[in-house]
Design brief:
With 135 residues, the chain is an all-alpha fold. The radius of gyration is 23 Å and the shape is elongated.
């Protein structure tokens, strides 16, 4: 069974409205609706709070919903997230060193200057993206 149906069923069995549950776990009613309609999934903290509120085990809520399990694995995979962030930092440091070493060659060709600037901006954007995802 999908997580949305499980959440709705557990909420109805508990005699609560979406508004009641949203207030208790500090989210909006629209967020509750989105979870129950599987437009998006709750994070692990909210799943635990819902489990406690409804008096239902986590196993019961999550079992059988592969999409939800996959979502939780991706959202809690800090090792992979850290590897990407460290990789982005490493690439930026390497590019800075390359630009310093080849500064004389790059400065003499306007196309190389443009290429170096483009690569620098792109790698910086990737680094900022990884930092923002980490926050």
């Amino acid at each position: 069974m999908e997580i949305g149906k499980m959440l709705k069923g557990a909420r109805v069995n508990s005699g609560l409205t979406q508004e009641d549950v949203a207030d208790k776990i500090r989210v909006t009613r629209q967020t509750m609706s989105n979870w129950e309609n599987e437009k998006c999934y709750p994070d692990i903290i909210n799943v635990i709070e819902l489990s406690n509120l409804y008096g239902v085990s986590l196993d019961e809520l999550l079992k059988g919903d592969e999409k939800m399990i996959q979502h939780l694995e991706q959202s809690t995979d800090t090792v992979n997230s850290n590897k990407k962030l460290i990789g982005a930092i490493g690439v930026n440091i390497l590019l800075i060193l390359i630009f310093i070493v080849f500064n004389g060659v790059i400065a003499q060709n306007q196309y190389l200057i443009l290429l170096a600037m483009s690569i620098g901006v792109l790698s910086t954007c990737v680094l900022f993206y990884q930092i923002i995802r980490k926050i």
